[in-house]
Amino acid sequence: MRIIIVLLLYLFSLEAKTPYELGKDLYVAKACYSCHGHKAEGMNTFPALANRAKGYMAYKLKRFRSKKADTQAQQMMITYSVGLSDADIENLSIFMQDYVDEEMTERYDDSFQTHGDGGS
Ligand code: HEC
After folding, report:
1. Residue 47 dihedral angles phi and psi, to the nearest 5°
2. Of the candidates 52, 25, 51, 50, which has an alpha carbon nearest to the alpha carbon of residue 39?
3. What are 101-118's pLDDT values in tens digits?
4. Which residue is closest in CA terms to ligand 1's atom 36?
């Protein structure tokens, strides 16, 4: 019996997504990438969002959500933030702050490193 419970708990934990993953899903679903870039690196006049302070990102998104914009360019963000819940903003902000370029980590896979003295 106990093993079944452990197994079920394990299966549920596989289902649960981290805030980072939820934020990443939102970033794609809400098409944030279309302006801020696929790697949140920014594009033209659209600011980079990767690895920026979570508190500031959340502050800005909440400001945009309450339809406050300081410049005409920022007004663009109002449409994209009105539908966001507090949890959405939290997850998005965690994703932006902790952003890791997964392609890069794969490209520099060093698991095949050779060991030894190089044959000298
Ligand atoms: C249509 C283009 C567009 C889309 C789509 C868009 N943004 Fe923006 N975003 C902007 C513009 C423009 C600004 C304001 C830049 C400025 O201050 O000059 C901005 C600003 C921001 C800022 C504040 C950055 C700062 O440095 O102050 C955050 C955070 C942000 N966007 C997050 C998001 C998120 C999250 C999404 C998806 C839900 C999103 N944006 C979708 C255009 C866009």
Report:
1. -65, 150
2. 50
3. 887 666 666 676 666 776
4. 32
Burial of 20 per CB tally in 10 Å (0-12, 13-18, 19+):
middle
- Are the C-beta atoms of 31 and 43 separated by less than 8 Å? no
Q: What is the pTM of this model?
A: 0.83
Q: Which two tokens stand for residue 51?
A: 């690895």
Q: Residue 100 is encoded by which pair of tokens?
A: 């890791």
* Domain 17-100 grouped into CATH 1.10.760.10: yes
Cα–Cα distance between 111 and 59 in angstroms, integer? 40
**CB under 6 Å to ligand 1: residues?**
30-32, 34-36, 46-47, 49, 57, 60-61, 71, 73-74, 76-77, 80, 92
Read off the DSSP letter of residue 117.
Answer: S
